[in-house]
Design a protein that fits this description.
It is a single chain. It is built from nine helices and eight strands. By secondary structure, it is α+β, with helices and mostly antiparallel strands. It has two domains: about 325 residues, Outer membrane efflux proteins (OEP) (Up-down Bundle), CATH 1.20.1600; about 80 residues. The strands form three sheets. A four-stranded antiparallel beta sheet has the order 2-5-7-8, with no helix packed on it. A two-stranded parallel sheet has the order 1-6. Strand 7 and strand 8 form a beta hairpin. Helix 4 packs antiparallel against helix 9. The two termini are about 65 Å apart.
Length: about 425
Amino acid sequence: MFNKILLTITIFTFGFSDLVQGQGQKFTLKEAVEYALQNHLDVKNKKLGEDYAIEQVNETRAIGLPQLNANVQFVNNVEKQVFVFPNPATGKSEPIRVGNTYSTVGTLSASWLAFDASYFIGLKAANAYTELVKLQTNLAERDVEENVTKSYYLVLITKENINLIDQNLKTLEDILFQTEGFYKNGFVEKIDVDRLKLTLSNLNITKKSLQDQYEVVKQLLKMNMGMNVDTEIELTQSLEELYKSTMATENSTFDVKLRVEYQLLNRQLVLNNLDKKRYEMNKIPNLALFANYVQSNFEEKIKYDTWYSNSFWGFQIGIPLFSGFNNRAQLKKRYINISQTKNSMEIFENAAKMQANQAVAKYQRSLETIELQKKNLELANEILRISSLKLKEGVGSNLEISNAQQELKASQTNYLNSIYDLLMAQLELKKAFGK
């Protein structure tokens, strides 16, 4: 009885799991981006890099903290050390073994880098490097968001193309049915029927190709999201909905400081200046404190009755005098690095301004193009409607229907492409303005 109940529960569990997997996870564009930012391995690696940078800061900070070490040494003098001394009585040198059979020495030592200008500079540089790594994470997140958004749009536009072909197929099948009736009654020629069948066949081939492409771009989206490509997903937003959301774009003033790339270069400049300062500080003396405490035991047998102590403390001052002009060469190299970074910042600022201007122009042009394509689509639909009406009334031709159908298909494709171009233009606009 228990086994039957267990079998029933197992079957239900697997059945429910299959049902959930069959339905697939549902994602809006925002949800897809959020999923990617949490699960994409590139982003995870960058965040691990942040943790690594934090530990580097801790490692650098530890250099300036007191260091304490303990050491215990046990020695068994199996053969004691031999010393040779002259014997005045005989006038000859005689060997004498000196020392104890067993010796144990315990040492406790402490040291502290009390003052070192380069250490404090290094600590600042470590903190600045942590900020640099965080900016690299932001850059990776922006790239992941961009890739997910592009592939999300691509899936939607491919799906819309398939839907449009389905509509065209239905329209052509109705026209073919009417034309075959006209052919049977002798009103049209067989070539008219064959021409429509050829058009239908070509549309079916295009549809199958788009269906294959649809699966490919869906896998691309899942890969960009950091998801297993075999997982079923469903997109809940339409191309039209996303298109309308772009119309609410606010005008922004370009500020290169909002670009992550510029922030990275600026942080690199900070690191270069700190590196230069480190070599400038090499001329300043450093101070280190140290102390030592020793307990020793020497016996002929292993016993620890008597211990002898020894201790001392002191300090050491390091004064750099002459490095063979090595420090001067290192300092000049750092000045060169600073100049190169400043040049890179200026190059990027100029290029970013051009990119922003191009993005604005492309977005405005896309807005104008989509309005024109919408009007063209309305005209193509009207032409097909009139051509179909004329054919029913016997005053039109099958060739006219075929031409109208091809024009409608081209207009639909152009309209979809214009929506896709607008979405891409809006994405590039956000990137150019550092949003």
